[in-house]
Specification:
By secondary structure, the chain is of the alpha/beta class. Helix content is about 45%, strand content about 15%.
C-alpha cells in the first residue's frame, strides 16, 4: 500500500472520517481495523468509535486512528458522546445494525447533513418481539443512510427491499496476518507446522477435519456431531477439531462424551490459519452465515478443501471451489466428507479451484480504494452549473 501525504477531496485539509463499531463480530471489527489502517496511509484522519474491549483486541490506535470509547448501548449518554465526535466529521461510516442506528441518531437533527455510509455484514435473524424490533431499526437505518454497502449481492438486494436509497456491493477483504502484512491470512509455514500441529491434535495417522466458529446454535454443530457418528465407521477414523467458544460448549462436550464421538473442542485459537493449513478438510456446517464467511476465505487461502452449507453469501463467495451441501442436513455433510476423503484427485481439484477463486476476491488495498472513492463522491462539493 502506497501512502500519500494528504488526501483531501476539498483541497484544503485531510478528510475527517468517523468509523462507528458496535459490539462488532470478528469480521466487522477486523474490517474496521483494516479500513482504518488503509485510510490513514492515504492521509485520511480516522476516529474509531468503539467499546474499550474492541480497541484492546484490534488496536485501532496502532493502525494510526484515534479511538473514542462509545458503549454498545443506544442510551442518550452514549448517543450524545457519539454526536460530539461526529460533529467535526466530513463523513461517518457505521458497521452493523446497532452501530448504524446509533450513528443515525447522533446525526439526526443537524442543519448540515453529514453523509452516513453503512456497511452491512449480515441481516437480522432474531425471531419474535426482538426480531420485529430489530427489523424496525433496520428500516430506519436503511432510510437514514446515504449509501449502504452490502458485503454480498444478497445483502445489497435486502438493503434495497428494506428501503435503502443507494445500495451497492462492497465486498469486505480478508485482513492480512499481522506478522505478514504483504499477504492475506494463511498458514505461516504449512510444510513446517503441519506435522507438529497434527501431532499435538492427535491426528498423525488419521484424517483431520477442522471447523471454526463460535459455539452457538446457528453454527450447526449439532449437525456436525450427527455427521461424526457416520465417520466413526471409517478406517482410519477422522478426527474432528472445533475451534471456538460459546454457550453450547457444555452441551456439545456432554454429547461428545456420551456418544464417543471423534470430536475435540479446542476452544478459541489465535492460530486458525495454521490450524486450517494442517487439516485435510475444512467444515462449515452453519445454518446461516454472515455475508462473507471468514472461515471459507481462510480455508481457500490455506489450500484446504472446504465442505460448507449452501447458506447466505457462501455460494457466491466460493463459487465451484467447495463442496456445498444443504444446510442442516447431516447425511449430506457426512456423505460429502466420506467421498472427499476417498478421492484425492477431487481434493486436489478443489485446492486448485480454491486458489483461483481466492484470486478473484478484493484485496485490502482494493477495498480501501473502493471505500475512499465513495467518500470522495459524497464529500466533494457539487460543481456550479
Amino acid at each position: 500500500m502506497t501512502p500519500v501525504s494528504s488526501h483531501s477531496p476539498h483541497g484544503q485539509a485531510p478528510l475527517r472520517t468517523v468509523q462507528v463499531l458496535g459490539g462488532g463480530n470478528a469480521g466487522s471489527s477486523a474490517h474496521v481495523r483494516s479500513l482504518a489502517a488503509g485510510l490513514v496511509a492515504r492521509g485520511v484522519k480516522v476516529t474509531v468509535c468503539a467499546p474499550f474491549d474492541a480497541e484492546r483486541t484490534y488496536d485501532f490506535t496502532g493502525a494510526g486512528a484515534d479511538h473514542v470509547h462509545v458503549p454498545r448501548s443506544s442510551d442518550p449518554v452514549s448517543v450524545a458522546a457519539l454526536r460530539t465526535v461526529c460533529a467535526e466529521a466530513d463523513l461517518v461510516h457505521a458497521h452493523g445494525l446497532h452501530a448504524s442506528f446509533r450513528a443515525a441518531l447522533a446525526l439526526g437533527g443537524r442543519r448540515v447533513r453529514t453523509p452516513l455510509v453503512v456497511t452491512w455484514h449480515d441481516r437480522v435473524h432474531a425471531q419474535g418481539a426482538r426480531g420485529q424490533l430489530l427489523r424496525v431499526l433496520e428500516r430506519r437505518v436503511m432510510k437514514a443512510a446515504t449509501v449502504v454497502l452490502g458485503a454480498t449481492s444478497e445483502l445489497v438486494d435486502g438493503a434495497r427491499r428494506t428501503g435503502a436509497r443507494d445500495a451497492r456491493l462492497g465486498p469486505v477483504a480478508l485482513p492480512a496476518r499481522p506478522d505478514r502484512p504483504d499477504r492475506p491470512a494463511g498458514p505461516e509455514d504449512p510444510d513446517r507446522l503441519r506435522p507438529k500441529l497434527r501431532a499435538e491434535l492427535g491426528a498423525v495417522d488419521r484424517p483431520l477435519l477442522v471447523a471454526v466458529g463460535s459455539l452457538e446454535p446457528h453454527r450447526g454443530y449439532d449437525v456436525l456431531l450427527d455427521a461424526a457418528r457416520v465417520w466413526r465407521r471409517l478406517d482410519p477414523e477422522p478426527l474432528v477439531v472445533v475451534a471456538g467458544e460459546g454457550p453450547l460448549r457444555g452441551e456439545l462436550q456432554a454429547r461428545i462424551e456420551e456418544e464417543g464421538l471423534p470430536v475435540v473442542l479446542v476452544g478459541s485459537r489465535d492460530d486458525v490459519p495454521d490450524l486450517l493449513g494442517a487439516a485435510d478438510l475444512a467444515l462449515l456446517p452453519s445454518r446461516r452465515e454472515p455475508g462473507r464467511s471468514v472461515l471459507a476465505q481462510e480455508a481457500l487461502h490455506a489450500g484446504v478443501p472446504l465442505v460448507a452449507g449452501a447458506v447466505g453469501g457462501v455460494p457466491e463467495l466460493v463459487g465451484d471451489a467447495a463442496e456445498l451441501v444443504p444446510p442442516g442436513n447431516a447425511w449430506a455433510l457426512a456423505d460429502a466428507v466420506v467421498r472427499l476423503l476417498a478421492d484425492p484427485a477431487r481434493r486436489d481439484e478443489l485446492r486448485e479451484r480454491g486458489a483461483r477463486q481466492a484470486a478473484t476476491w478484493p484485496t485490502e488495498d482494493e477495498t480501501v480504494a473502493q471505500v475512499l472513492s465513495i467518500y470522495d463522491e459524497l464529500t466533494q462539493p457539487t460543481p456550479l452549473l
